[in-house]
Amino acid sequence: MTEIPRTPLLLALAGLLPFLWSAATVLSPGLADWGQGILGARFVGPYAGLFYSTVILSFMSGVLWGFATKMTGSSASLGYVLSVLPALWVFFTMGGGAYNAGIMLLIGFTGILGLDWYFWRAGAAPGWWMRLRLMITAVVLLCLVIGLTQ
């Protein structure tokens, strides 16, 4: 694995802000009350994390699709098929309440690491990809677990 370039690292860390905000408003009722007054109920507590998680898993489908474009033949075909799985996972598993959605998103973010690894091993993802994804996913999973406590 190589060093993560500064721009992707900073953008990935910025992408964690909604997850961290969600967890912080679960852990701090005062912050949640303040946030709800300013932003509305959908943007605090576990709901903020759940909503943003669906956006990010769908976004990751697009990232993986981009990796599939670097492959050829049957590997490319498999890459395209695998790339749509995160978005389909979100579509078919959301519902059944906040707790169930949180569990399904935890499974989705854990599962996407396998897809990340596949594209990385195939040489379609940058050499630093797994280092970034492991770090970011650890924070995401922790924030989602915190959301399950409410």
Automatic annotation (TrEMBL):
Transmembrane ranges? 48-68, 75-92, 98-120, 132-149
- Report which superkingdom the organism of origin falls in: Bacteria
| Keyword Transmembrane helix applies | yes
Record keywords = Membrane, Transmembrane, Transmembrane helix
Q: Is the keyword Transmembrane in the record?
A: yes
User: By what name is this protein known?
Assistant: Membrane protein
